[in-house]
Amino acid sequence: NSPPPPNVLEFLDPPPPVGPATPQADESSKEPAADWQLRTSERRSPLTKEREANNWALNELRKLILAIKRLGKPVGDKGRTVITFQKLIDGTSGVFEALLATLLAAKTHQIVDFEGDILLKGRDDTVVITLLREL
Q: The pTM is what?
């Protein structure tokens, strides 16, 4: 026989008070803020989580645009900024959690353009990425 699964509600309820259970309890006996924030974040609505995800993605796209403008060079009569995939990788090391996913999202939304469907380091180092528009 295995033990029963933990009660899911255990994780949502505040922990029992630490120290004296009186209104005069000192500050050190209160629940740490980080624990309460975790429980609060678990209670967020799906709509709130969706908004946070959209804001994160939008922020990543803005960072990509800024990186291309900073590292790339304007070319042509329209002055569009271009950069090679390798230069973008080298110049943004540690900036993006998922550079390839951000590039694909930017291509889908016609923010950037490049040849092919996906870029791979090494194979596609010389592929030119063109900034089409800003947000």
A: 0.64
